[in-house]
């Protein structure tokens, strides 16, 4: 049996699927990253004329229409995004979406779940919209269950914007423990007028572009989509003729409980999860080749994150850091899962994505090596992907190359 450095069964990513502002598919996501496209712009799905900041990172209307040929209809776009991502990921992994013979569990992270359904109902004067559409697993997972035979546990997580990483961590634990043969893990979000209103009230929205770690950053821009990763034990995957796309080396979570909307000033939760991942994987800070940062473009969060990464990964070299939120905005419940997919592709392709909208690095974000907008070609062996959530929650996933020796 292929085991990791702690003696536990090694867990692989065997397939990925995505719906994002780049359109349908993980290839579309990665192509947008490599082409350095900025996909935020004026929201078209609902009226933003009364708001000072009017931008979002919407799944294109054409891609939404294309869902009709892929998954059944549902009043929740989030439910359809998730089902489409799961289908792609399972097919990419070479696992039939229908049929039994394997124990398949589903682990999904979200922030708003199907809340936009309720918002639309209220906005149209319908006061009889069921309150359960806020975060009912059956509503969010209904379409996925129509297209995938789920024979194992189904778990919904809502730890803020750390949701996708929390789902991956739970799925990896279940696979390693033998509780499931296949874990379908991911995060999902549908753009919501109420989310935009909330961030407006917090004065956290950029009016034009998200600029992570830039001295002129002015806030974030909400996005949407779904990211799905299929996890299996490495020995099971290889036995059926498959090949690991990447390996889950370790996962860790923490909650600093400092403030409802801001991390602890010292980044204690993030430092804890980075150390936890390295300890569990029996690696050092110098083994980490790239940090796929949370990097929201907000004044407080980026500086705290940079200082925490510099502290946690102090070693022979400055940590190499970039965020893709300058391109895709902040996809909330889907963000960490989409970023994990980008990490998987970066490991395979040897490309460190750049901070595409970075013009002038903020001195307050010092101590780290911020990747230039063009990105870098470099051999990657280990990537750290991290995410923050409101309330102080942090979830971090450490990924390694698929051909990496873990024993």
Describe what this molecule looks like in 3D.
It is built from 12 helices and 16 strands. It has helices at 26-34, 61-66, 77-93, 115-123, 137-147, 163-176, 193-201, 234-239, 268-281, 299-312, 325-328, 335-349, and strands spanning 11-20, 23-24, 41-42, 55-56, 104-110, 154-157, 182-189, 225-233, 246-255, 290-292, 320-322, 351-352, 369-370, 376-377, 382-389, 393-401. Strands 1, 2, 5, 6, 7, 8, 9, 10, 11, 13, 15 and 16 form a 12-stranded mixed beta sheet that branches. Strands 3-4 form a two-stranded antiparallel ribbon. It has a two-stranded antiparallel sheet with strand order 12-14. A hairpin with a 3-residue loop joins strand 15 (382-389) and strand 16 (393-401). The radius of gyration is 19 Å and the shape is globular. The termini are close together.
Our Rg estimate from Cα atoms comes to 19 Å
Gross morphology: globular
| Element pattern in H and E | EEHEEHHEHHEHEHEHEHEHEHHEEEEE
Please tell me the total number of domains: 2
Helical stretch tally: 12
Features:
407 residues, 16 strands, Thiolase-like, 12 helices, transferase, 12-stranded mixed β-sheet, alpha/beta, Ketoacyl_synth_AS, two-stranded antiparallel ribbon, globular, Ketoacyl_synth_C, single chain, Peroxisomal Thiolase, Chain A, domain 1, 3-oxoacyl-[acyl-carrier-protein] synthase 2
The gist of it:
Residues 8-401 form the Ketosynthase family 3 (KS3) domain. The protein contains twelve helices and 16 strands.
């Amino acid at each position: 049996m292929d085991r990791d450095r702690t003696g536990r069964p090694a867990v692989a990513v065997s397939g990925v699927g995505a719906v994002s502002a780049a359109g349908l598919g993980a290839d579309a996501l990665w192509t947008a990253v490599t082409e350095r496209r900025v996909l935020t712009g004026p929201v078209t799905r609902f009226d933003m004329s009364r708001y000072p900041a009017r931008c979002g990172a919407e799944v294109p209307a054409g891609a939404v229409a294309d869902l009709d040929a892929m998954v059944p209809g549902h009043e929740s776009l989030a439910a359809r995004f998730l089902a489409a991502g799961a289908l792609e990921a399972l097919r990419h992994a070479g696992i039939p979406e229908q049929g039994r013979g394997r124990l398949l569990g589903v682990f999904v992270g979200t922030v708003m779940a199907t809340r936009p359904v309720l918002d639309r109902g209220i906005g149209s004067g319908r006061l009889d919209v069921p309150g359960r559409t806020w975060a009912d697993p059956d509503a969010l997972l209904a379409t996925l269950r129509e297209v995938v035979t789920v024979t194992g546990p189904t778990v919904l997580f809502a730890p803020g914007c750390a949701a996708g990483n929390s789902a991956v961590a739970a799925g990896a634990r279940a696979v390693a423990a033998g509780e499931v043969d296949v874990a379908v893990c991911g995060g999902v979000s549908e753009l919501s007028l109420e989310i935009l209103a909330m961030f407006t009230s917090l004065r956290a929205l950029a009016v034009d572009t998200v600029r992570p770690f830039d001295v002129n950053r002015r806030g974030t821009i909400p996005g949407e989509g779904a990211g799905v990763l299929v996890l299996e034990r490495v020995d099971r995957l290889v036995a059926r003729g498959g090949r690991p796309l990447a390996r889950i080396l370790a996962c860790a979570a923490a909650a600093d409980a400092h403030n409802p909307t801001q991390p602890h000033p010292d980044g204690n939760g993030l430092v804890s999860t980075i150390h936890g991942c390295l300890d569990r994987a029996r690696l050092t800070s110098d083994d980490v080749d790239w940090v796929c940062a949370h990097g929201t473009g907000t004044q407080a969060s980026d500086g705290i994150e940079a200082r925490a990464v510099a502290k946690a990964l102090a070693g022979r070299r400055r940590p190499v850091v970039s965020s893709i939120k300058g391109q895709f905005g902040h996809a909330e419940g889907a963000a960490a899962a989409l970023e994990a997919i980008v990490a998987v592709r970066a490991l395979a392709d040897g490309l460190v994505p750049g901070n595409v909208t970075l013009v002038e690095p903020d001195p307050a974000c010092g101590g780290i090596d911020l990747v230039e907008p063009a990105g870098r070609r470099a051999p990657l062996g280990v990537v750290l992907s991290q995410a923050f959530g409101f309330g102080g929650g942090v979830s971090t996933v450490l990924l390694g190359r698929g051909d990496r020796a873990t024993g």
